Amino acid sequence: MTETRSRPARSRLAEQVRPERPFARFRWTVTLVLTALLVWSSATVDASWGRLTEAPGRAVGFAQTLVANASLEPLGVALEAMWESIAIAWIATLIGAVCSFPLVFLAAGNLTRGRVKQPVRQLLNVFRAVPEIVLAIALIPFLGLGPVTGAVAMGISSIGTLGKLSAEIVESIDRGPLEAVEASGGGRLTRLRWAVLPQAMPEIAAFWLYRFEINIRVSAVLGVIGIGGIGGFIAQAVERNVFERIGLGLVVVILATMLVDAISSRLRRRLIEGPSPAAQARRERASVAGAEHEEDPE
Amino acid sequence: MSAPTGERPRRPSPVASARPQRRPRKPPPQPFTLLGLVGLAAFTLVTAWDWVLGIGFNPIALPGELADSNPAMVEGLFNITDADWRADYAELLRTHFTDPDSPWLLSLDSRIGSGLVETVQIAVLATLVGAAASLPLAVLNSRLGAPNRTTHAVIKTLNNINRAIPDVIWAALFVVLVSVGALPGILALTMFTIGVVVKLTSDVVDGVDLGPVEAARAAGASHAAAMRTALVPQILPSFASFSLYAFELNLRGAAVLGFVGAGGIGQAMNYYWSQLDFEAVSVIIFVYLVLVVIVEQVSISVRRRLV
């Protein structure tokens, strides 16, 4: 019996293999920078952290007033405001979709040369970089303060994201159909219509819907600067400390947003995955039956 | 041979000979497509028309409305287009953004300077706190990481509710709870960060390589240990990238918070706007845009390295 064999298996293993941990310079730099940022921000920000301890007490008071004064009387106004937010978001999405659509094909690397692609991409980046609130404020001198201002501001900023991501979708299409159309003598527009659109359109449309979901949130945000909608409703209630209106507005925002998200995500799934197998089978049966009926000479 | 070169020889091609076989019929459009198009057109009409349910958006009249502007506001907001805008703008920056005694140093004590710094602080703190809370939540928000189904369902529902509340509404709520200042802004953007990062990261968890997790379990690791040693290292790069992305979003979002009293540059914007000092608003927008663009460029280049 030698010394080594009598040792427990565990320590023998440990002795054998554990490779030394490499010194991770990247990790240390990141940790240091983050700690420094955290310390600097929390030490210098004028945040009155002590108020955090008061928050639970205030929340209880808030809830009590809310329950005591709960009434459905402002519900009509809140629903109207929510609908306005949805309308603003929809118009903004349409503006973004319509304006970005022609740019998409100019920004897709597989359809255009870099000479065209780069400037268009830069243009889309500019639209994307400017925050919606800045666009909205810049539009106020021209359109005043109202839902249309919000819709146009959000529309412009949607052009950037929709254009960029749709261009990426177009870039990922299968080259086969493109080459087929080219081989049979199709021109630029023919190629777009018969090779690009059928492949890319479902995903692009799904992406428009996704942007609509985002825009609903943004329109609620812009509401606080006065373009209308549910954001304005809640901001006013906060300003005047009408707790029951705040509560009602919140419930309306949450339910409406989740409802629109649910509908929109179902539509998106349908767009991308196509009809469910059951529905597909039903359709095929129907069309086969129809065809038989049509070709039946008797 | 004798045929003129310009004319195409009329020889039956294989394609043409296949012709009489009958071209397949184009299937009728799907009911989903038809219904969808009609529904969307109706929805558009309802929302765009100038009536109770619409916002009165008229694309034909829009150019006219754009041309019919408020000259005082345009002059104030867009004086950058003046012939001598360079001098003007430098002067504006100096009066609004610097200390009068030392004209070459940006003064962070001015209303705009301090607002800008506060915006950055709010965004930094909210991102750090929110991201730190998001990593465990993202693991619990996935089928793989949740210890049981109930945890998964509860966290998923809570985060969906969280994501349905826009950041400014969170800010307004926190203003009610902790009163005005930077604190409600930090809390609001923390909630927003959690919403974004948890959603995106848990999607990554679902597509992770199961091998290491199985190996950890086979070696007798507890659930928590298996997650920490086998799952987290796999999702860490994406998580870091999403957190940086959330930082960009927070910096943009932090500008609006001031309008509901939650601190940052928006407060200065709101103040000068109510004073009808459009030149100051224009300075704020300019400086803020520069900040946003710089941070975005840095963040994008770091994110490219990460993933």
Please, could you describe this protein's structure?
The complex is a heterodimer of chains A (298) and B (307). Chain A has 298 residues and is mostly helical. Chain A has a domain at 75-272: MetI-like fold (Orthogonal Bundle). Helices cover 81% and strands 0% of the residues of chain A. Chain A is built from 13 helices and no strands. Chain A has helices at residues 3-6, 9-17, 25-44, 51-69, 75-107, 114-129, 132-143, 147-171, 175-183, 188-222, 230-239, 243-273, 277-295. With 307 residues, chain B is mostly helical. In chain B, 70% of the residues lie in helices and 2% in strands. Chain B has helices spanning 14-18, 31-48, 62-67, 71-77, 85-97, 111-140, 149-164, 167-178, 182-206, 211-218, 223-257, 265-274, 278-306, and strands at residues 98-99, 102-106. A two-stranded antiparallel ribbon of chain B has the order 1-2. In chain B, a hairpin with a 2-residue loop joins strand 1 and strand 2 (102-106). In chain B, helix 6 packs across helix 12 (265-274) and helix 12 runs antiparallel to helix 13 (278-306). At the A-B interface, helix 3, helix 4, helix 5, helix 7 and helix 8 of A face helix 2, helix 3, helix 4, helix 6 and helix 7 of B.
Please give the structural blueprint.
The complex is a heterodimer of chains A (298) and B (307).
Chain A lengths: L2 H4 L2 H9 L7 H20 L6 H19 L5 H33 L6 H16 L2 H12 L3 H25 L3 H9 L4 H35 L7 H10 L3 H31 L3 H19 L3
Chain B lengths: L13 H5 L12 H18 L13 H6 L3 H7 L7 H13 E2 L2 E5 L4 H30 L8 H16 L2 H12 L3 H25 L4 H8 L4 H35 L7 H10 L3 H29 L1
Antiparallel strand pairs in B: 1-2
Helix pairs in contact in B: 4-13, 6-9, 6-11, 6-12, 7-9, 8-9, 9-11, 10-11, 11-13, 12-13
